[in-house]
Amino acid sequence: DTGVSQNPRHKITKRGQNVTFRCDPISEHNRLYWYRQTLGQGPEFLTYFQNEAQLEKSRLLSDRFSAERPKGSFSTLEIQRTEQGDSAMYLCASSLDSSGGREDTQYFGPGTRLTVL
Amino acid sequence: RKEVEQDPGPFNVPEGATVAFNCTYSNSASQSFFWYRQDCRKEPKLLMSVYSSGNEDGRFTAQLNRASQYISLLIRDSKLSDSATYLCVVRRNYGQNFVFGPGTRLSVLP
After folding, report:
1. Residue A74 contacts B, CB cutoff 8 Å
2. Chains A and B: how many Cβ contacts under 8 Å?
């Protein structure tokens, strides 16, 4: 399968613990996005990387959240001192910067469902 | 007011019906527009991009009205497999920040 993969698919943790999620984008894609989705809502943008550079961060991304993409390939999203309000589906997407005027398509991974008890 | 709003739904329609979804956006400088489909407990998948001239892909037609800041999706001859949540997506005029609407759920009934 050459699509976007995310690990783990499910994570249950206790409040106050740290969690880390991983995203492996489609191999030739230089853009990578993180979103959060709660029940009944659309995905909310968290952050975006162009290669290894983190170019945008949402105000939703509090100090407890940090994302990295050290080699411009896979990315990790860490949440420190988790709170119950962090329970959500965390989605990763990737796209190829076409720079040719045509909008690049985002391909989503299956997500990591986080439950904070 | 949310930046992207959609019909609240759910829409329950019989097979073969024509159904239309509406979406409005508040940022007049928004650049790009899309419809995504999301099945229950699955990731969103691109259904179609929306161009100023309107575009059609089989049974699906998307239209954009920049003056009214309005996007629509029309599904003709709906199938059971069309049952899903349809997400309206707008890209802001800067960066790569894509804003998703809350989605409209469609159930096509036999």
Report:
1. no
2. 51
